[in-house]
Every structure is written in structure tokens, then in C-alpha cells.
User: Fold this.
Amino acid sequence: MEDSQPTLANWRLPPFNREAFSKVREIIPTASINWTKGPDKKVSEFKNKELTVKIRENEETLLDEFLSQTTVDAFHISHKGKTIYTWHSDYCSSTTPHIIFSVSKSLTALLIGCVIDEGLLSEETLVSQIIPETKGSAFEDASVRNLLDMSVSSNFIEDYEATSGIFLDYRQSTGWNPQDIDDTSHLKSFLLSLKKNTHNHGEKFEYHSTNTDMLGIIIEKCTGKKYAQYFFEKLMRPLGAQDDAYVTLDRMGTSRSAGGVCISASDIMSICEMVRCYGKNSQGEQVFPENWIKDILNSDSNKKFSLDGHYDIFPEGLYRSKWYRPYTSRNVLFGLGIHGQWIWIDFDKELSFVCLSSEPKPIMKNNIEQMSDIFSQITNQLV
Assistant:
């Protein structure tokens, strides 16, 4: 008999993912990253701004109508610090925690910025100086900066649709796939099993989620706090986050910092707006290190992310500290996750977008190109 509900074996597959992506904690162990509910939201009375989009050669259609025909679950727009548009499917509300997959990487890198700002870590520090158990692994002589910029040399292969091999082993170690009854592996043991490739660290951009999982372990070692607790203290509490949020855990309680954050569209918009305002919250208080955001935007050591497969869409594309910078001529940053997760921040136009989805396949290149074009179309209508 086929499963009729999401399970650990099918939760990322259609049609089960449409429901599962907003109910991850019913399938996988999690830790809360928002421990205190903030004051009741003061919902300002506003009517969604009427926006239109044109998809390829089709006629213009209302944004609401377009979204209703897709697998988008939540779509929010903020302009000059004010919410001007929200849309949700029947599977998600503005307060529902939705898994953001690799957008988690962008947020984990923000936490690393806090650890460095506190003087607990340096970008040049080698991983083995922090985690001695990494000696003999791919991470031994990799630096924190190598982890941040996806330039670690290892034998890992990122293949989201693999049915065997190293990526399936990885998924099982994270608790995202069923494990054999005699399989005792966990995320940290898997990371320690990776070996260095033939090239040196820092020579190539290679998109490996394992780099960000190691950053999560480093955060815990340097701060003496669990990843979820530090996330709450540095991002959720200072921004007045009010909705339920959590991160997935492996069998040993290690957080999946590379892809397991589940957060509402409203609260991740607050994080986007904090980044857009160079670390200030909605009250104008500096709650995050401004220099970290400026470094992501302005550093000349960014790596082209052609090997990530998006070079034809963003030929000027750069990558720094888990954030994509699609244009060298504009101050725009974005985070991207499989199955259609987006955060898009336009500093010059004072715009932030959040798009949470349940696309049937992990990577749908046409949809990536289409959604980035939609962000541009909407930007042109608003400014």
C-alpha cells in the first residue's frame, strides 16, 4: 500500500512535499530557535499593492493569479521597511515555519559573523585548530574562510537526486533519509570521513553543503552554546521574531545548519530587512555587525559561482560568505535553496523579497531564471 501521508522516506518528493515542507518537525527531530513569543503583531491595515508579471511571451497577469498557479507557498515583499505584499497558499500562512533548505547557509554565515565579531574566531583559523578531530579529514587544513566561500577541497559530491553513493550516505547521516538498522553514522562522523581532493583549498568554488554543516559545529564549539540557542540570541530575539521556528537535528542532536532551518515568511523577512539596513532592526538599533554585511557586498575576493550552475543566468555573479551577489553594478544579495526557496535583498531600491516554495524537483533552472526575472519586473514597477 502506497503512503498517503508525508514520511521520512518521501517528504521531499511530490505530492508529499507540498504539505511536508510546512510540517517538518512532524517527520524529523528538531530544536526550537525561537524560545519566547514576542508581543502580538500589530497588523497594519494595508491592501496588497496590485502587481503584474509577464511570463515569457504570455500577456501580463496579476501576481496573485500567477502565484496561485505555481508551487509557491509564501511570497512577501517589503519596500522601504514596510510590508506591501503578502500571498500564501493553502499549505502555509505568514506565521507557518517553512523549511528554507540552503537559505539556511546564508543565515548560518550571519551567525559566523557574530562569532568573529565577538573575538571568538578568525577567518584565517584552520578547522583543526577548533575541532581537533578533523585531523586526517578534508577539513584539517581548511580555513574558516574556505568554509564560508565554498572553496574546501574534498571528495564530497553534491547530487540532490542521487539514489546511492556519498550523497545518500550524507542524507542518511543528517536524519533526512531512513537509515539501515545497523547504521550508526551521524552528521559529524560523516564529515570526519571526508577526504581532501587533489587540488588545494581555495583554488576552486565547489558547492558542498558539508562546509556549512561544519560551520554549525564550529559555532557550537566557539560559543559553548547549541546552534539553536545562538541563532535565537543573535537573530530571532534582537529582531523581535514572534513565530515558531526550528532546525532539524541528526540522531546525536547536531543541527543541520546547512539546510534544516524552518522559519516563517514574516520572520525571515525581518532578517532580510536587518541585512538591508546593515545590521539595524526596525527600531534603528544596531543588532548585528555592519562590517560583516559590507564585506559581503564589497569584498573583491568574491568567487564567481559558475560551478554552481547559474553563471548563464547571472554572468556577473559573485559569491561571498554563503550569499550570492548577482550583479557587480548593483547592490543586490540573495540566498537560494532547493525546491524554490529565495530571499532577495536590493539595497539600492530598498526592497526585500521572500519566496518559499514546494517545487517538485530540487533544482529547476527555468524556475530560477523565471523568479529572478519576476523580482526584477516587480522592482521596476515599484521604483
In short: The first strand starts at residue 30 and ends at 32. DSSP finds twelve helices and 13 strands in the chain. The longest helix spans residues 365-382. The CA atoms of residues 54 and 60 lie 4 Å apart.
